[in-house]
Amino acid sequence: MKAIVRITYCPKCGWLLRAAYMAQELLTTFVEDLHSVNLEPSEISGRYTVFVNDEIIFDRKREGRFPEIKELKQLVRNRVNPEKDLGHSDR
User: Fold this and answer.
1) Which of 85, 17, 89 is nearest to 9 (CA)?
2) Do 42 and 10 touch, CB atoms closer than 8 A?
3) In 3D, which of 64, 65, 67, 73 has the Cα closest to residue 91?
4) What is the distance between the alpha carbons of residues 26 and 39, in angstroms, rounded to a whole number?
5) DSSP bridge partners of 56
6) What is the per-residue pLDDT across 71-83, written as a single tens digit (0 to 9) for each?
7) What is the dihedral of CA 23, 26, 27, 30, to 10 degrees?
8) Using alpha carbons only, what angle is made at residue 87 by residues 83 and 91, rounded to the nearest 5 degrees?
9) Per the confidence metrics, is the pTM higher than 0.85?
10) Cα 22 from Cα 76, distance rounded (Å)
11) Phi and psi for 46 in degrees, rounded to 5?
């Protein structure tokens, strides 16, 4: 079964474009592995959390920063297709 990624973001912080960019990158990289990437506006200020099948893989508040796209691809890959070669994102 293909994975579902969910990105919750703070719309008041203006993070929709960041979330949309990351969603596009994940959908392009994991064409065969993802069912969807859902963008979910959060009611909680400052939230930027990425889930794979309801498991938190990155939380901005916990980490104190946003994920780099390379890092996010590795985190998603580790859950949905550990054998997948990410090319330059693995180096």
Assistant:
1) 17
2) yes
3) 73
4) 12
5) 51
6) 999 999 999 999 9
7) -160
8) 100
9) yes
10) 11
11) 80, 5
Query: How many whole angstroms from its chain centre is CA 87?
Result: 18
CA angle 39, 42, 47 (to 5 degrees): 100
Query: Residue 21 is encoded by which pair of tokens?
Result: 């960019």
For the chain, what is the HEC assignment? CCEEEEEEECHHHCCHHHHHHHHHHHHHHCCCCEEEEEEEECCCCCCEEEEECCEEEEEHHHHCCCCCHHHHHHHHHHHHCCCCCCHHHHC
**What's the rounded Cα separation, in Å, for the pair 89 and 1?**
25
